[in-house]
Design goal:
By secondary structure, this protein is an all-alpha fold. Helices cover 81% and strands 0% of the residues. It has one domain.
C-alpha cells in the first residue's frame, strides 16, 4: 500500500512540477515519471541538506521539490 501512495504522490508532484516549470515539461506521462523519480531524489537530497518534512503533505512537498529539481536538470541537459 505504501508503494501505491508513493507512486500517486510522485505522479501528482510530477504533474504539478510540469505545470509550474512551464516550457520545461515533457508531457503528462513523462512528467509523472519524473515526479516519481523526483520523489525519490527529493527524499534522498533534502535530508542531506538538513530539510525534512513529515506526513503525507511533507511527502508531497519533498516529491514536488525533487521533481522540480529533476525537471530543471533535464531541461539543462536537453538544451546542451
Amino acid at each position: 500500500m505504501n508503494l501505491i501512495i508513493f507512486l500517486l504522490i510522485g505522479a501528482l508532484a510530477g504533474w504539478l512540477a510540469g505545470v509550474v516549470m512551464k516550457g520545461r515539461g515533457f508531457g503528462v506521462i513523462i512528467n509523472i515519471v519524473v515526479g516519481v523519480v523526483g520523489a525519490w531524489l527529493g527524499g534522498w537530497l533534502l535530508p542531506k541538506l538538513g530539510i525534512a518534512f513529515g506526513g503525507t503533505v511533507g511527502s508531497f512537498i519533498t516529491a514536488f521539490v525533487g521533481a522540480v529539481i529533476l525537471l530543471a536538470i533535464i531541461g539543462l541537459i536537453k538544451k546542451a
